[in-house]
Amino acid sequence: MKYIDIIKDVMIKNNLSQFGLAQIIGVNQTTISQWLLGKKHPRYEHILAFYEKFGVTPNEFFGIEEVF
Prior knowledge:
The structure is a single chain. By secondary structure, this protein is mainly alpha-helical. It has one domain: 434 Repressor (Amino-terminal Domain) (Orthogonal Bundle), CATH 1.10.260.40. The chain has five helices and no strands. The protein has helices at about 5-15, 20-25, 30-35, 45-55, 60. Helix 2 (about 20-25) crosses helix 3 (about 30-35). The chain is globular and about 40 Å long.
């Protein structure tokens, strides 16, 4: 799953608007919009915030599957 799909999934599961998600992650609504359009990529601290707030691991965010 691409990070765009993960962001959308988080928004749907938590009934969040772009503005609501932006407040939780610590960015402005325009940044969320640009992520969803693929114009910008979340920085490390924002990916960490997704993990802390929603349990999305960095590996999931980047589409890396763990193989053991």
